[in-house]
Each structure stands twice: as C-alpha cells, then as structure tokens.
Amino acid sequence: MVLLRLRCLLWGCLLSTVHPEPHITCGENQYVTNNHCCDMCQPGKKLVNDCTEFTTTECVSCKTGEFLDTWNRERHCHQHKYCDPNLGLKVQKEGTSDTDTTCRCDEGLHCTTNACESCTQHTPCPPGLGVKQVATGVSDTVCDPCPAGFFSNVSSALEKCHPWTRCETKGLVELQSGTNKTDVICGLQDRIRALVAIPITMVILLAVLLVSAYIRKVTKGPGNKVIQPKKCQIPVEDLEDPIPLYSIAPVQETLHGCQPVTQEDGKESRISVQERI
C-alpha cells in the first residue's frame, strides 16, 4: 500500500515536469486573465469586460460624484468625499472623475487626520509659552517655552513671547525683575521721585493761593463801594416863614433828616439823641 502511494507521487512529479504551465509576463498597466494580458482601465474609468483573444479591455467613465484615481481593473468607482459642515469642514477643491474631493477646516480649526475627515480647535499656548509655529488647516499650534528675557502673559494660539521692557530706554529704573509670565516693572528712583514731586507741589500751592486771592477780591469788591448821602431837595413852598435877610441875631441853617433847622450863631449845635436815631 505504501509502495503504491510512492509510485503515484513519482508519476505526478514526472507529468508536471514534462507539461509545465506557461508563465505569462504582462506590461506595467496590464493584468493577466484567461492566460491573456489585458490592459487596465485608465484613471477616471472602471472595468466593464475583460479582454479576449479577439477584443480589448472594455472600460467606461465614472459617473458624476465618483472617481478612480489610478490604473485599475475595478468594477465600481469610488464616491467623492463629503465635507460635512457640522464637523467644521468645507470644500477646498471639488473632485473629478480621476481625483477625490479635498476638504479643509474652518478658520480656527485644523484637521485631526491626514484625510481631514473631522476638525478640532487650535490649541492655545498658555502663559509662559509662546507660539513657535501658528496652526494651519492641517496642523495644530506648536508652542515653545519663553527663553530668558522674554515673557508671555496670555493664553493665545497666535501670540509669540515678547521681550522684557528695557527701563533705561525710558529713563526709568527696574523695580522688579520679569519672569517668563510677567514683564519687568519700571519706576522712578526715590531721589528722582522727590525732585519731581517738589516742583509739582509748589505749582499746586501757588495755584491754590492765586485762586483764593482772586475769589476774595471778587467777593469783597461790592462791599467797598462808598454809599453817597442822599441829597435832599426842599420845595420852596414848604417854607412858610422865610428867614429875613437882616435879623438881629445871626442864625445858621442846617439840615437834619431833610428838615431845615435854624440856630443862633455862637451857640453849640445840639441834636437830641432821638433826632440822631
């Protein structure tokens, strides 16, 4: 029984050696089918029928919204990619029969994969880190720590590290050193501050004195006016007994309360307290 199996195996090897299958080599854009080399379909077309001894490969163009971007023997075309606006995508370039549609992300977003099938927000660089490379539609923000002499005090996807303020350029001195998150604090020296404060104080005091003097002069002005005594006019008809031109005793005529008063010459004029009041 074992001998019979060995004989069958030997005869099989001999038959395969005597009648080997022919080895077919096809061109770059060809494929083997039914012992024939058939041409592949060019990009933008799909396969309908293989070639035969008498016919060539039959291909047809992809329909609208479909594509094939390589030489192929595919029976179906691929659908164009859909740029979903709900995922933050928009069309960058419309597809053709031999190219797919390309998508890109809205402003402030970037693709999560090379195929750009979804988007995500740009990563902001926190304080202490600056933007080394601004994000694009296909890459995220690249952050870098602020070196010595630079700082960043905001969280941003655009701001780079800023250099510390140089106090000496502003005529100031450094009161507090900066860090990678804060700027240098500048200010005046105590001596300089005093030299600046004294003239300012003197000017303010002088201004206050001038204003006070002006206000005092304005408020006191009306009170300095001299009140002129009221002139009395005595009607002629009110004098019933005119004084004769030649009288025995000389008299002196005075006015008191707009009333004429006669008095003998040489006698002291006296007005009662009631009349003065």
UniProtKB/TrEMBL annotation:
Compartment annotation: Membrane
Transmembrane domains' residue ranges: 194-215
A GO CC term assigned to this protein in UniProt: external side of plasma membrane
Source species, domain of life: Eukaryota
InterPro entries: TNFR/NGFR_Cys_rich_reg, TNFR_5, TNFRSF5, TNFRSF5_N
TNFR-Cys repeats: from-to residues: 25-59, 61-103, 104-143, 145-186
Disulfide-bonded cysteines: C38-C51, C41-C59, C62-C77, C125-C143, C146-C161
Topological category with respect to the lipid bilayer: Single-pass type I membrane protein
Pfam families linked to this entry: TNFR_c6
Keywords: Disulfide bond, Glycoprotein, Immunity, Membrane, Receptor, Repeat, Signal, Transmembrane, Transmembrane helix
Domain TNFR-Cys: start-end pairs: 25-59, 61-103, 104-143, 145-186
GO biological process, one term: regulation of gene expression
GO molecular function terms noted in the UniProt entry: signaling receptor activity
Gene3D superfamilies found in the cross-reference section: Tumor Necrosis Factor Receptor, subunit A, domain 2
SMART domains, per the entry: TNFR
SUPFAM superfamilies (UniProt xref): TNF receptor-like (SSF57586)
Cleaved signal peptide residues: 1-20
Keyword Transcription (UniProt): no
Quaternary state and interactors: Monomer and homodimer. Interacts with TRAF1, TRAF2, TRAF3, TRAF5 and TRAF6. Interacts with TRAF6 and MAP3K8; the interaction is required for ERK activation.
Described function: Receptor for TNFSF5/CD40LG. Transduces TRAF6- and MAP3K8-mediated signals that activate ERK in macrophages and B cells, leading to induction of immunoglobulin secretion.
PANTHER family to which the protein is assigned, alphabetical: TUMOR NECROSIS FACTOR RECEPTOR SUPERFAMILY MEMBER 5
Protein's name according to its UniProt entry: Tumor necrosis factor receptor superfamily member 5
Lineage, top ranks: Eukaryota, Metazoa, Chordata, Craniata, Vertebrata
